[in-house]
Amino acid sequence: MNTPTVFEELIRKFAELSNETATQDLTNENGSFIGGRDTFFRFGGGLTNNGEIGLSVGVHDILGSIDNTINGRVMVAGQSTATFYGDMTNDGDIFTGQGSQSVFLGDVTGSGRC
Fold first, then answer.
1. How is residue 71 annotated by DSSP?
2. pLDDT for res 44
């Protein structure tokens, strides 16, 4: 029996986490931050964003619906492209910096700023 490498163990843990959170509702609390470069986020149960999401540098794929509340802010900057595959309810702020792109493939609703 072989002992798994650190890399194999990380892949196993990631798969477990991915499966556990695939159908759970997640909340980014007020004052909290989710960020990344060249990211793949899957919010199978949806995300309620009361804080900030910052996506910079690279290509970002975000799967699942997002409820960007009045306190929520989504920022796409640094010459990046973010594709949102689920529905977006935006009652907060979505900022797309110069040279960056925000692509929405689902419905976008709400009274927030884009």
1. T
2. 83
